[in-house]
Amino acid sequence: xxxxxxxxxxxxxxxxxxxxxxxxxxxxxxxxxxxxxxxxxxxxxxxxxxxxxxxxxxxxxxxxxxxxxxxxxxxxxxxxxxxxxxxxxxxxxxxxxxxxxxxxxxxxxxxxxxxxxxxxxxxxxxxxxxxxxxxxxxxxxxxxxxxxxxxxxxxxxxxxxxxxxxxxxxxxxxxxxxxxxxxxxxxxxxxxxxxxxxxxxxxxxxxxxxxx
Amino acid sequence: xxxxxxxxxxxxxxxxxxxxxxxxxxxxxxxxxxxxxxxxxxxxxxxxxxxxxxxxxxxxxxxxxxxxxxxxxxxxxxxxxxxxxxxxxxxxxxxxxxxxxxxxxxxxxxxxxxxxxxxxxxxxxxxxxxxxxxxxxxxxxxxxxxxxxxxxxxxxxxxxxxxxxxxxxxxxxxxxxxxxxxxxxxxxxxxxxxxxxxxxxxxxxxxxxxxx
Lengths: 212, 212
Hints:
Two copies of one chain form a homodimer. Chain A has helices at residues 9-15, 20-42, 49-56, 60-67, 70-85, 87-96, 100-127, 131-157, 167-177, 180-189, 194-209. Chain A is an all-alpha fold and 212 residues long. In chain A, α5 (70-85) runs parallel beside α8 (131-157) and α9 packs antiparallel against α11. The A-B interface holds A 43, 46, 126-129, 141, 145, 168-169, 172-173, 175-177, 179, 181-182, 184-186, 189-190, 192, 200, 204, 207-208 and B 43, 46, 126-129, 141, 145, 168-169, 172-173, 175-177, 179, 181-182, 184-186, 189-190, 192, 200, 204, 207-208.
């Protein structure tokens, strides 16, 4: 997947707040995990607030008070995923890496990690017909694509990009080849190990965007 | 996408049958087109047999008599797509082409054509949660992947495959890189022209699977 999602400062800070707010965040997190399980199992449309409350072992009113709506819960997944995977940190590390080939290996590693850990969430976002979820999904895709464009800027500074390659096209290629859709085709369907996938993505990205 | 779907002899033959059976096929085709439109618009679950009948301007009984069920209609899409795009013919032409690089260009062309013409059908298959549709989708994917494996056999006969590449992996790569998911990411999302996509897929496949 190889993505970064901007704007993580706020959710992160919540973890560092003691007492009541920590309890509130813990409740929110268990609601989010319950919703994640049910959305993957029954789809977004097939899941009620009541079912989420039952799964999280809280009252439906608690779910309404914490989020307001089912769509608002789904929107929160963006931040939940970041906190779990520590994507911003891994992404900054990748950007700061001086060796271009190693940068692409780190991209492949981030992508593999996200596919393994969060494939379920991307799946139900992609499968949903809800306009509200489509809007959140668009934001997630935009953030991923934007992260790859940042990497392309670094590669251009080092003058290692294939000379005939447009920078926007390079970003799209990095983004598409390390995507969850490729993971589904190669790991889930074709039976590759995640290790094999990660190595193939790294090698392919080098061949596709770096000057020989 | 780069696929072939075996077993087309039967639906093809229907077109060559005169009189009553031709009329029956015309009715079936207009039901299929109506269903295709509605499935894309409302999803499989959101479409009733009655709505399909109204869209096709036939009685619901006619739909039941022709197909029996909504799932049976969806299954027929496999053959409808083949008839429209003449995929088996294009695929055989690609297999028979002696030049390996040109073979991969033809793969890219077939993939682009299918993405442009039939993306809507693959989309609602992928988005559906119906087990019956999932089974048909699996068959379609298997047929695509199997077609790519046939191509890999031709490339191996010519001894032009990258020496370190496992033939099964090569087939998976050909299949994944020319897929509708890549088309969505590069054309629909990133704004590439279909021409640009086709050229990029052809060049990338050459780099990824052919020996230097």
